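Why do we care about 3D structure at all? Because function follows from shape, and shape follows, mostly, from sequence. That is the central idea of this module. The next example makes it concrete: a single protein chain, its amino acid sequence, and then its structure expressed as tokens.
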Amino acid sequence: MAEGHADRVLSVLSNGAAAALSPIAASWRRCLTQHHLDPENRKPPETLTGAELREAQERMGPFLAAARDNLDSLFQAVGESGCCVLLTDAQGVPVDRRGVAGDDPVFRRWGLWEGAVWSEAREGTNGIGTCIAEQRVLTVHRDQHFHTRNIGLSCTVAPLFDATGGLAGALDVSSCRPGLEGLTSLVERIVTDAARRIEARAFRDAFPDARIVLLPEQTLERASAPMLAVDGDDLIIGATRAARQALKLTDAVLRGGVTFPDRAASLDEAERAAVRRALSQTGGNVSAAAALLGLSRATMNRKLKRLDLARGREFI
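And the structure:
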């Protein structure tokens, strides 16, 4: 597989249409023309010092706390298939990970370890770095990687956005084993759901005294859930990335004071619509709907009761 890989990568320079049609080809072109990388570079990923890694972990403090349980549950879902789970910062540096002890030596050799730098500018096209560059859920399989030394990897990654809508990092599931190509859609959904739960938890933690309102959304494929933080006067004091995009909210707009239309009644209506949509999408499975919305089952049950959606209905 490695033979001719560099030639395939270099061919995108002579085929401008390829970069326009393929996100992978577009990333390869960035690696060649913007980052000036060599696909045959055999050096392992750069690694932070212990002090630098601790500083990165401190900066990710709120997300590390919000992610811990979700990293455990995600690893339980994928670990037996030879995958490791990585939580990275916005520079593509893993600050926490989960892996099977027997696989750890292999992942450490590949650089899938805390402190390694997986930005696209350093490591070329790869799941973590290209997800951060594109700010969307994506999978990079084996020979789609830029560097020849990385073509044994398969990586599925979802971006993580903080309480201000900015990029905070990424959630990655990586494997060194072949055969995951046919599971791309399933793994992407699992990683996306976990990312939504982490982001929702971090958002609620950022506004502990606010009412958190779930908004209806156009698609359930986003890594970011549309959520608002509303104070006692029904002023919007916080919004996730998806909510900002849906309502055209910026930091300046929020600082100017925004009241949700028609106050509490409309807040309940919007939240009820979001919950009903999630339940519809999951066939009435409360646990699955809660995961889709970034909520725990207990929180979802309380919302069903408060929004008067549980009465006379059959839920799983």
